[in-house]
Amino acid sequence: FPLFWFSMPAILKGWMDRVLVQGFAYDLSKAYDGGLLQDKLSLFSFTTGGSQEMYSKEGIGGDIRYVLWPMQHGIMHFCGVKVLEPHICYAPENVSEEKRKEMLTAWTQRLKTLWKEEPIDCSPEWYFK
Fold first, then answer.
1. Would residue 114 count as lying in a domain?
2. What is the DSSP string of 72-100?
3. Which UniProt keywords apply (predicted)?
4. How many domains does the chain have?
5. Is residue 3 part of a domain?
6. What spatial distance separates the first Cα and last Cα of the chain, rounded to whole Å?
7. Residue 81 counted as domain residue
8. Domain around 91
9. One digit per residue, pLDDT tens: the chain, 129 residues?
């Protein structure tokens, strides 16, 4: 998805609101590592409008991990889902065609080994270190 106003697009958020409902995706007594979807994996793959430098700790947008906290931790991990490292293509509309092809090649290569990846820690330390 495209990162839209530091979040997911409304249509994706609406889907999550309708699908990740109490009793199916979470129960207040069973959250995070004990969540109802604990055997599932998630991977956020998205593009940004800004460069990688803009989403660094020193950048104007702040560290991209800060942006990911509510989506990966607050939604997916809350439901018990294990979260893989995100796949981010920074500012594809502002780079050369060669660089965009490299982005697609990197995504293609990652998909080949995706099921072997270890989930991130999904702790505050991972996001805010």
1. yes
2. IIIIIGGGT-EEPPPEEE--GGGS-HHHH
3. Oxidoreductase
4. 1
5. no
6. 26
7. yes
8. 10-128
9. 999 999 999 999 999 999 999 999 999 999 999 999 998 999 999 999 999 999 999 999 999 999 999 999 999 999 999 999 999 999 999 999 999 999 999 999 999 999 999 999 999 999 998
